[in-house]
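Re: the request from the purification team.
They wanted to know what the chain is likely to look like in 3D before they choose a buffer screen. I agreed to run a prediction and write the result into the notebook, where they can find it.
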Amino acid sequence: MLRRKRGCAATRLFHSLFAALFLPIAASAEDQASLTGKSLDGDGGASVVSPMAVNRPERNPRWTISAEAIALARTGGVNRTLVERVAGVVPFLATSTASGAEVFNSNQFRQGFSAGPKVALTYHDPSGYGAELSFFNIFDQSATGSIGPDSPPAWLVMKAPGIFWQTQDFPYQSMVWNSTTSLYGAEASGRFTLSSRVTVLAGFRWLQLNDSLQGALTPADLTAPTWKSTCPGCNLFQVTPGGTVAGNYPPFWNTSTTNNLYGVQVGLAGKILELGRFSLDGLIKIGIFENNAEQSTGVSLQKVVYSSSATANHAAFVGEANLQVKYRVIDGLALKAGYAALWLDGVALAPGQIQETLTTASGVRALGVNCGAAILFQGATVGVEYSF
């Protein structure tokens, strides 16, 4: 239901911006006539404008360089239980099958905003055709969820397919999950100017989405949890530190995914409003992509990490929408700020790979790659552009 609501909201956003961009097309014929030095009379014929207008020197720029800072926040993800709470009086071995109450889900991560650069170079040909190259990067954004320790003590349990389940080693510990995401992208597009206010775009795009998830216990073990073998029937109230000094134990779960999306897209860019030195511009793009996805998971069994990995190709959808206010400082130089949204559907996120990781007595095996997630990046942009 949550994913459907996000999808509907994104759809309404694209539809609204699509309508706003197409409004200027009604004036397209008049703009084209103006550019050719002709106007349409009531009979559909052409009348020549004054020689002064025809002989006006061409001042359209050939190149535009844009540099922006973008700050985007991630919403959406995978619905996966990461921590359940089971009563501390339950024996340790029974926690593997005991029904617990969910206390932390992967959709509860709140990574906040992460900033990065976006640069673009655009060529404008007098014929109306053009080309554009651009690149952007959103640096790592991360969030942490920490559960426990409880008073009175309660078991904190994480379960996965197969024989794997994890609790804290001692009552004083918390179960901590960390999520990290990064995003890169580059595109090359052809452009055609329909009118002075509307431009059509089509081209190729590459996006790389990286996501990771790590589960660990904190603080570190003071002593080795030998009680798991000597007293597996103990409950949490009976577990106390003691014995040999603990080693440098690894995280009990570590998953990372890489999505390389390659595809074609089409779009519209338009000037929605212009008031003196100020203007409001809009942009929408949609595209179909092939996602070359990979997942790699390390699982700790008795404090020894076993690795597994898998790859898959999957169809994906990408949509983008932008609104920008520009202020022309001088001819050719403008400051700009606005809102940007990027929607990716059909990608692999780290929490979704838990169900694709099977643990057995002989080790860990990847069953595949779950590419069923959707994710939205949205936020603010600010920058400068120079045309010459």
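For the purification team: The chain has a mean pLDDT of 88.
Please add any questions underneath this entry.
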